Amino acid sequence: MVATQPVMYGRVRYATTKHPLYKTWRNMMDYEPDAGWSSFAHFADTVGVRPPKTKLKRVDDSKSLGPDNWQWRPLRPIGNS
Q1: DSSP state of 75
Q2: What is the pLDDT of residue 81?
Q3: Residues 6+ apart with CB under 8 A from 63
């Protein structure tokens, strides 16, 4: 469900679908995240501002991605395994 109220990102307020983290959240929905992140506003509030050149990853791969199991991890350069 898409929230209709603007969501903060740093010091700027964005409409939900224009928010810099919205695509990350929508893509995450394909992987059945923890119910705690079913709300985009809660997700955005939990993860805060995305550091440059990072992606959202689970800390414990045996658990769902959610408010208690996530971190920003650096992107690997293309060509490295």
Answers
A1: P
A2: 55
A3: 34, 69
User: How far is the C-alpha of 35 from the C-alpha of 54, rounded, in Å?
Assistant: 23
Residues facing residue 73 across a β-bridge: 55
Q: Residue 7, Cα to own-chain centre: how many angstroms?
A: 13
pLDDT digits (tens, 9 = 90+) for 16-63: 899 999 999 999 998 889 999 999 999 999 999 999 999 999 999 999
Distance, CA of 33 to CA of 44 (rounded, Å)? 14
Q: What residues contact residue 54 under an 8 Å CB cut-off, 6+ apart?
A: 72, 73, 74, 75
**SS3 for 57?**
strand
Neighbours of 44 (CB within 10 A): 23
Number of neighbouring beta carbons within 10 Å of residue 33: 20
Closest CA to 22 of 51, 53, 42, 44: 44
